[in-house]
Amino acid sequence: MHIAMIAGSNRQNATSTSVLRYIETILKARNIQVSFIDLAVVRLPLFSPDAEDVHPEADFMIRSVKQADGLILATPEYHGSISGSLKNALDYLDNSHVAGKPVLTVSSAGGRLGVSSLVHLQSIIRNLHGILSPEWISIGDGHPLFDRDGAPRDPEILQRIDQAVEQFIELVRKLGNDTQPRKVMMES
Ligand SMILES: Cc1cc2nc3c(=O)[nH]c(=O)nc-3n(C[C@H](O)[C@H](O)[C@H](O)COP(=O)(O)O)c2cc1C
């Protein structure tokens, strides 16, 4: 199994990115291959349909998404929506990269919940013909997941993340099985 993860915050020590890093440890512990694209590190040029060449960093992202069995996307909540960085990255993609793939969405908001950004993100995924994972992850109050010494601030939140990731992996597995050639039962 191969999962592509895109961290949509253009901020050092972003909460949404730290959630993805935590999820990455869960996936790697299960020997799941991960491509991690951190948009605070990978500076994608502003997407233009007129561009003749694909920027190498954008090309890496597109290939990672295309090869992946599922995607995990994270965004900070900005003005009730997703970050400009993530929207710009998603504009590089089309249905041929995303269609039929499970997508887990994650947001971090300054308020109690980042539902608005998640709804917008899920609408984009629908337009790319991706399949939404049953649960989403919203981290409120902008708190980092862990203290400086690495201790979880709120074990309940980690538990909820674990559960959402579990359902996502299960969905990727189920859909992966569906793409296997079906055995034809021959009548004797
Ligand atoms: C430009 C901007 C707009 C924001 N808009 C919202 C908002 O609409 N709702 C909200 O709850 N928090 C808002 N915030 C706060 C961020 O969502 C919050 O700091 C979040 O934790 C940032 O996520 P990150 O640490 O992953 O970058 C905004 C912050 C910025 C910089």
Describe this structure in words.
One of its GO terms (molecular function) is azobenzene reductase (NADP+) activity. Pfam families: FMN_red (PF03358). Keywords: Oxidoreductase. One of its GO terms (cellular component) is cytosol. Residues 1-142 form the NADPH-dependent FMN reductase-like domain. The termini are far apart. The chain is built from 6 helices and 6 strands; from the N terminus they run βαβαβααβαββα. It is of the alpha/beta class and 188 residues long. The relative contact order is 0.17. It has helices at 15-29, 56-67, 84-91, 95-98, 115-127, 155-179, and strands at 2-7, 33-38, 70-76, 102-108, 131-132, 137-139. The protein has a single domain, classed as 3-Layer(aba) Sandwich (Rossmann fold), CATH 3.40.50. Residues 177-188 have low confidence and may be disordered. Helix 1 links the parallel strand 1 and strand 2. Strands 1, 2, 3, 4, 5 and 6 form a 6-stranded parallel beta sheet that branches. Flavin mononucleotide binds at residues 9, 11, 14-16, 76-80, 108-111, 142. Flavin mononucleotide (FMN) is lined by residues 9, 11, 14-16, 76-80, 108-111, 142.
